[in-house]
Every structure is written in C-alpha cells, then in structure tokens.
Amino acid sequence: MSLRNLIKPGMGLVAVGLVIGALGFWGTQNILHATSSDAFCMTCHAQHSLKDEVMASAHGNNAMGIVAQCQDCHLPPGQIDYLVKKIIVSKDVIGYLTIDGFETQEWLEENRKEQAELARDYIRSIDSASCQSCHTNIYENQPEAMKKMAKRMHAKNFEKAPEDRKTCIDCHKGVAHPYPR
Ligand code: HEC
Ligand code: HEC
Ligand code: HEC
Ligand code: HEC
Predict the structure, then answer these.
(1) 172 lines ligand 3 (CB under 6 A)
(2) Can you give the pTM of this predicted structure?
(3) Is 115 near ligand 1, meaning CB less than 6 Å away?
(4) pLDDT surpasses 50 at 3
(5) What is the SS3 assignment for the chain?
(6) 50-94: per-residue pLDDT in tens?
(7) How far is the CA of 134 from the centre of ligand 3 (A)?
(8) 146 alpha carbon – ligand 1 mean position (Å)
(9) From residue 65, how far is each of 59, 61, 68, 135 by CA, in Å?
(10) Average pLDDT score over residue span 145-159
C-alpha cells in the first residue's frame, strides 16, 4: 500500500472534524483555530511550493519581518463568513481524495491558471476584505510614505461609485505567488 493510500483515508477524519465543527458554532473556536494555521493548509498542499512562494514575495520577505499566513488572505476576517468558507473549503477534502496526483507540484503547475482564477473569484466575492484587514489606509488616511503613483491610483478608484470601484486583486495580481501567464 502506497503512502498516499495510507494518508488519504486519514483525511476523512479532517472531513468529519469540519462537519462536527459546523454543528456548534461557539464550540468550534478551537477547531477553527487548529484548522487555520499554515501547517493545516500544507497538510494537503504538502508538495506544493505555495509556502516558499509566499516567503519569496513581499508578504514573506519584507523589512518588517511580517509573514502573511495563508488564511490572512484566503479566508475572510468576519467569524460567520469565516465559518461558511471553512465548510466550503471542506469540498477540498473530496477533491483531495479524488483528484489524481493533486499533491504533486506538477499538478499545481498544470492547473495553476484555473486554481488562480478560483482563488481570485473568491477574494473578489468578499471585495478583498482579507487584504483590507491589514492594508487599512489604502483609500483614506493614506500614509505619507505611500508612493505618489499608488496614492493617485487608489484615490481615483475611491472617487468612483462603490459599484464601479475595482477591488484590490483586480489591480494587484501575484502578490504572494507567481501569477500564471
Ligand atoms: C483536505 C485537503 C485540503 C486542505 C486542508 C486545504 N486544501 Fe486547498 N485545495 C485542496 C484541493 C483538493 C484543491 C483543488 C480543488 C478543486 O479544484 O476542486 C484546493 C485548492 C485550493 C485553492 C485554489 C482553488 C480555490 O477554490 O480557491 C486555494 C486558494 C486553496 N486551496 C487554499 C487553501 C488554504 C488557504 C488552506 C488552509 C486554510 C487549504 N487550502 C487547505 C485541498 C486542501
Ligand atoms: C497579514 C497582513 C497582510 C495581508 C492580509 C495582506 N498584506 Fe499586502 N503587505 C503586507 C506587508 C507587511 C507588506 C510589505 C510592506 C513593505 O515591505 O513595505 C505588503 C505588501 C503589499 C504590496 C506591495 C508589494 C508588492 O507585492 O507589490 C501590495 C501591492 C500588497 N501588499 C497587496 C495586498 C493584497 C492585494 C492583499 C490581499 C490578497 C494583501 N496585500 C494582503 C501585509 C499584508
Ligand atoms: C485601480 C487599480 C488599483 C486598485 C483598485 C488598488 N491598487 Fe494598490 N496600487 C496600484 C498601483 C498602480 C500602485 C503602484 C504600483 C507600484 O508601485 O508597483 C499600487 C500600489 C500599492 C501598494 C504599494 C504602495 C507603495 O508605496 O509601495 C500597496 C500596498 C497597495 N497598492 C495595496 C492595495 C490594496 C490593499 C488595495 C485594495 C484596498 C489596492 N491596492 C487597490 C493600483 C491599485
Ligand atoms: C498576501 C496574500 C496571500 C497569501 C499570504 C497567500 N496567498 Fe494564496 N493566493 C493569493 C492570491 C491573491 C491568489 C490569486 C492568484 C494570484 O494573484 O496570484 C492566490 C492563489 C492561490 C492558489 C491558486 C494557485 C495559484 O498559484 O494562483 C493556491 C492553491 C493558494 N493561493 C494557496 C495558498 C497557501 C497554501 C498559502 C499559505 C502557504 C497562501 N496561498 C498564501 C493570496 C495569498
């Protein structure tokens, strides 16, 4: 029996954990916490270069020593929304069990464009709220240190009616991973 066959049934436990977690919202805080570390994400994305990519980007390699975690960008900041996304992420349990070769880097490279679009659709659907929980002064109280060009672009976007505004990731692609061509 290959290692993969041994590990895969174990992931069923993750599925069960997520379902149990969904049953009692207040009781789930610890489970949510445990399932929100980079280590949790990397259990399935184990052989993917995603963490290294973050560490090589401005979100892992900056003068401030700040490392953005997977969930800081990929999960919304609000708790209810957060739980909803968790349950949706559990669709990935099925994907993990059924997609052939998912855990390999080759799979990631072959499917990166499609996966990037899915990730973008989700972040767009929350109006890049995850980005804005760290980057709070993009549109108002812009810091002196922000580049003039950036200030101008951000101000111009903010002048528009809310429904016409672009969201962060419409202009910023590949902030943590190499954006697929
Ligand atoms: C149970 C295994 C598993 C875990 C744990 C897991 N993933 Fe995934 N992830 C997958 C699979 C499988 C896919 C491909 C799904 C597909 O295309 O059907 C995927 C795709 C993705 C995508 C791209 C597609 C999309 O829907 O956005 C992102 C982004 C992602 N995962 C982020 C994360 C983050 C962040 C975590 C930690 C909070 C995480 N994953 C934890 C299995 C997992
Ligand atoms: C955990 C907090 C955090 C989150 C979440 C976050 N950022 Fe950042 N971001 C940073 C830090 C820290 C830097 C580095 C600042 C520096 O080096 O001066 C940075 C730098 C940047 C830069 C400039 C460097 C570059 O790569 O061009 C852009 C653009 C940016 N972030 C956009 C985003 C977008 C878009 C999102 C959401 C997908 C996001 N950030 C989410 C903290 C965060
Ligand atoms: C209309 C397009 C547009 C939108 C929308 C936009 N940005 Fe930018 N942003 C830019 C441009 C252009 C720059 C300057 C590019 C450069 O310096 O590489 C920039 C620069 C930045 C920088 C670097 C600032 C510096 O001084 O180096 C950060 C951080 C950033 N944006 C974050 C965000 C976040 C977070 C959002 C969403 C709240 C956002 N941006 C929305 C166009 C946009
Ligand atoms: C600073 C924000 C940020 C961080 C931190 C981050 N991601 Fe992403 N991720 C994105 C964005 C935005 C996309 C959409 C594609 C793009 O613009 O590169 C994405 C795309 C993805 C994809 C789809 C494939 C691809 O390369 O586009 C996967 C899978 C993924 N991320 C998983 C992770 C995992 C796992 C971690 C933690 C090790 C992580 N991400 C950390 C912002 C982030």
Answers:
(1) yes
(2) 0.91
(3) yes
(4) no
(5) CCHHHHHHHHHHHHHHHHHHHHHCCHHHHHHHHHCCCHHHHHHHCCCCCHHHHHHHCCCCCCCCCCCCCHHHHHCCCCHHHHHHHHHHHCHHHHHHHHCCCCCCHHHHHHHHHHHHHHHHHHHHHCCCHHHHHHCCCCCCCCCCCCCHHHHHHHHHHHHCCHHHCCCHHHHCCCCCCCCCC
(6) 999 999 999 999 999 999 999 999 998 887 888 888 888 888 888
(7) 13
(8) 33
(9) 9, 7, 10, 16
(10) 98
The Å distance, Cα 136 to ligand 2 centre, comes to 11
Length of the chain: 181
Give the pair of three-digit tokens for residue 26.
């207040």
Does 168 contact ligand 3 (Cβ within 6 A)?
A: yes
Mutate to test the pocket of ligand 3, among 137, 172, 175, 179 (most ligand atoms within 8 A of CB): 172
